[in-house]
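Let's see one such:

===
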Amino acid sequence: MANPSVGTERVVTPPKARSLAEITVLTQAERFKGRPKLCSDCGICGGELRPLMAAACVFVQNRHEQIERKLHGRNRNDGDELLFGINRAIHITRLRQINYEAQWSGIVTRLGALLLEQGLVDGVIATKAAPGTLWAPLPFVARTPAEVLASAGNKPCLSPTLEVLAEVRASGLKRIAFIGMGCQVHALRAIEAELGLEKLYVIGLPCTDNTSYPDLLRFLNIVSKSPKTVVHHEFMQDFRVWLRHQDGHLEKMNYVDLDVSALGGERGIFPAACLSCFDYQNGLADLTIGYLGAPLPPEQRWQWMLVRTERGQEMFDLIKPLLELGERNEAGNRRVGVRAYVGMLRRPRKRPIAPIRKFVAWMQRNKGTKGFEFARAVIEMKLLRNLVFVRDQFPKHEARIVPHYVYRALAYTAEAYQAAFERSLAP
């Protein structure tokens, strides 16, 4: 019998490319199959910009301090800049007319809409919820103020936002605003010169510990009595997770009551990339807008805005007439607690029994850090945790992915680190 393959070419049909809406609801295993072990699925690898991945990816080479020098002409000074990033001003603020559909007061989406209204940009790269979900992020290019405003609300999941740069290029847009997270902003800044843009406004979202959409649903199922009705949730400055439901009521859970082991531990729910990230504060944005340093009570929806560049100042001046300005505050001393946290990283403790958890929660709320000191504590603990993770899981990568400012920021914990890990904190 003749071999049917002789003299013929085998036709291989390439797999059908998934849409962004399909990608965003996949599990971690499905999203990262065939990818490097350190990947946040920022979107740079998903389209025509893939050849620039090595130059852009923060997990191939962290160029944060190199890009910082290009943006500011210098690197971070000692003090708060080591934790919050280079900035010209930090404001406590909220919209006078709060958008109650937003996670906070709605500053981010209102600013994006204003940039379009004033004709400063032709499109805004933003993120809305994927069809049929509340939380799965679907990046898109908004062309109208209404489209930006409709995207309000947090989507704390992995988002391939940079993939929509292909649409920007195909549409011939030259003036855009980008709303995104630190890993995305790093990649965008690294290839900014290749994009041929006339104007780029970068609005940074502080970000820590994103996860896949299925894992987020798993988290909500564990922490909430009614997970399907949760519309917003946040790890608040009063050491509780606040979950807002569709009917408006708030559900609160103490940090110390979270059963992390039921999720498989932090390493079981968060991607390796998020545990290897050192830019919670989104230091390469023009303007970073978040909540961490804002005062309580959270019902008042105060936020903080970090103005970083001249373009960031331009955006702040644009939206300032719509803002109410507040007062910054701080209380407590984080350093004792952060040093103790080093030992807990070395020898994790089991969740204490309920009466002890109740006492710990009371102490945290009444005697713990507040305002800017709370923000410093959270950022330092994330830096410590992630440095330990990199050294444990990817020791050969440390020199490439850990910025020097990390060691400077954590220098006061060096003795505690040496005692716990029997090695130097310094690289």
The CA atoms of residues 239 and 255 lie 6 Å apart.
